[in-house]
């Protein structure tokens, strides 16, 4: 028959996927007891998504059932001290105290973040084309380029030389988004000179992102697409804590190194209580312009589906590496508008249809 110490040691081996730390060390598992052949413990998780809570509970349960003499496990679900109630708005990192309520953007019905673990995988390309494809389907779409340090959306949408109008002063300031390709967009790239470096610290970055969320005249929008910077930094945390979201899309290439980063990004969203809507694999195969029937798996294959499967989320699209995508991005005319018949454009349009059907309802 196992002892309480053995039960605790077994639970100590169960880790939080995001930080890699033990659940016991994090204080999420408490009051482990044994009654006859039953193990009981209290699970006090911060506001994780349901799937993440289920996974943690299942792993802890399995760890206990593997012990000799334990035939049943009972879990008491507890709200973490000072944290947000489990299953409510669902944000908060363990033990960090009460976070402010998420605040919706007036007139904006849904927010979808486009994220990637590492740079250069095509996150901005996906965000911009997805926004254009959703607009082409008749939805009212906004695009917030939250990649403050490397804003690419203005170039990809051909508006890098435009400057949004700003009215009012201080907290009353209101920026009018730029209208292009049927969408309304704002970006740091519209506010700084080209080639000017952006060197900001966290609090300033949070401030500008909050301004982009709440001090822009977004008007009535069925959906706001947020193009996040790569990685798991301040911008992701600010957005995830500030605004209620339909969820996040994770963009990755099939490459293993890209996958490891994408996993971290995915875990961060789940930890913040933000649903992951699915994975988009970009650059799945290269289609040469002079041999459009050929396919080359330049970055390997199967990475996107592996990531999606691991996380229990859908693989939303597998988009090829094609010349018109890059050309459209450089020329300021996204491929869904410049080459709507291309395989990539059809992939983006199908992605938009899927997301629309599952998460968006026009006003
Ligand atoms: N499917 C594709 N086919 C061809 N070119 C692509 C494709 N996806 C992205 N690209 C090109 O790859 C480059 C990087 O794409 P993009 O800027 O969208 O990546 P990113 O992940 O947003 O990068 P970062 O986060 O570093 O800004 C761009 O020149 C873009 O045009």
Automatic annotation (TrEMBL):
Q: Name one GO biological process term.
A: iron-sulfur cluster assembly
Q: Which InterPro entries match?
A: FSCA_dom_sf, MIP18-like, Mrp/NBP35_ATP-bd, NUBPL-like, P-loop_NTPase, YlxH/NBP35
Domain MIP18 family-like, by residue range, is 5-76
Task: List residues traversing the bilayer.
Answer: none
Q: Give the record's keywords alphabetically.
A: ATP-binding, Hydrolase, Iron, Iron-sulfur, Metal-binding, Nucleotide-binding
Enumerate the CDD domains for this protein. Mrp_NBP35
Per its UniProt record, what SUPFAM superfamilies does this chain match? Fe-S cluster assembly (FSCA) domain-like, P-loop containing nucleoside triphosphate hydrolases
Q: Which residues bind ATP?
A: 117-124
Q: Which GO terms describe its molecular function?
A: 4 iron, 4 sulfur cluster binding; ATP binding; ATP hydrolysis activity; ATP-dependent FeS chaperone activity; metal ion binding
Q: Name one Pfam family in it.
A: FeS_assembly_P
Q: How does it assemble?
A: Homodimer.
Q: Which family does it belong to?
A: Belongs to the Mrp/NBP35 ATP-binding proteins family.
What this protein is reported to do is described as: Binds and transfers iron-sulfur (Fe-S) clusters to target apoproteins. Can hydrolyze ATP.
Q: What is this protein called?
A: Iron-sulfur cluster carrier protein
């Amino acid at each position: 028959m196992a002892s309480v110490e053995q039960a605790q040691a077994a639970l100590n081996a169960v880790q939080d996927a995001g930080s890699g730390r033990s659940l016991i060390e994090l204080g999420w598992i408490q009051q482990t007891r044994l009654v006859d052949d039953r193990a009981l413990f209290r699970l006090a998780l911060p506001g994780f998504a349901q799937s993440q809570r289920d996974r943690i509970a299942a792993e802890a349960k399995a760890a206990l059932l593997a012990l000799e003499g334990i035939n049943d496990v009972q879990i008491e679900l507890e709200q973490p001290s000072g944290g947000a109630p489990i299953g409510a708005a669902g944000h908060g990192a363990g033990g960090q105290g009460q976070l402010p309520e998420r605040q919706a953007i007036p007139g904006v019905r849904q927010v979808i973040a486009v994220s990637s673990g590492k740079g250069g995988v095509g996150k901005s390309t996906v965000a911009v084309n997805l926004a254009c494809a959703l607009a082409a389907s008749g939805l009212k779409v906004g695009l917030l380029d939250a990649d403050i340090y490397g804003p690419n959306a203005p170039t990809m949408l051909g508006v890098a030389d435009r400057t949004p109008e700003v009215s009012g002063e201080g907290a009353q300031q209101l920026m009018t988004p730029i209208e292009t390709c049927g969408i309304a967009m704002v970006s740091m790239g519209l506010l700084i000179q080209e080639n000017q470096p952006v060197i900001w610290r966290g609090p300033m970055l949070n401030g500008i992102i909050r301004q982009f969320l709440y001090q822009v005249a977004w008007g009535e929008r069925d959906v706001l697409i947020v193009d996040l910077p790569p990685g798991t930094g301040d911008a992701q945390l600010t957005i995830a804590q500030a605004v209620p979201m339909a969820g996040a899309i994770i963009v990755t290439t099939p490459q293993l190194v890209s996958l490891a980063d994408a996993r971290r990004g995915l875990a961060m969203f789940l930890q913040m209580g933000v649903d992951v809507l699915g994975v988009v694999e970009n650059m799945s195969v290269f289609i040469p312009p002079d041999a459009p029937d050929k396919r080359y798996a330049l970055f390997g294959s199967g990475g996107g589906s592996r990531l999606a499967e691991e996380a229990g989320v859908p693989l939303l699209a597998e988009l090829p590496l094609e010349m018109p995508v890059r050309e459209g991005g450089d020329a300021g005319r996204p491929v869904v508008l410049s080459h709507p018949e291309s395989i990539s454009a059809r992939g983006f349009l199908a992605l938009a249809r899927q997301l629309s059907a599952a998460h968006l309802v026009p006003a």
